[in-house]
Amino acid sequence: MGVTPSTRTKTKTRRHLRDIDQIKTDLTSPRHLELYKLTKAPEDLPGLGKHYCIECSKWFATEPDLTIHQKGKPHRRRVKALERPYTHKEADAAIGLWTDNGPKKAKTQEVKMS
């Protein structure tokens, strides 16, 4: 049984975490984080929204679950990504802007005579 494109899309958006720049703002501005938390209903969150990992933007059911998460590799990767965010120059280079690919070669068309 195959996965339909609509099912695949729903899974990706459901698991989407907050972007690095949003989390960076949460870390620098407690008010921004508080406004984000107010948009979520505590009854719908694990552990009634008491245990939250700011760096990963995830809620946990218990304090030990949060502690175990903070010792794990995915959390450490996220913290490392937050330490040094990408610059605009790096983002432009990633999509191919402002990169030098060398001189362009002239296209030559060979005409065969029959």
Automatic annotation (TrEMBL):
Pfam families: zf-C2H2_jaz
Gene Ontology BP, a term: ribosome biogenesis
Alphabetical keyword list: Cytoplasm, Metal-binding, Nucleus, Ribosome biogenesis, Zinc, Zinc-finger
Coiled coil residues, start to end: none
Location in the cell: Cytoplasm; Nucleus
GO molecular function terms noted in the UniProt entry: nucleic acid binding; ribonucleoprotein complex binding; zinc ion binding
GO cellular component, one term: cytoplasm
C2H2-type domain boundaries: 51-80
Similarity comment: Belongs to the ZNF593/BUD20 C2H2-type zinc-finger protein family.
Protein name from the UniProt record: C2H2-type domain-containing protein
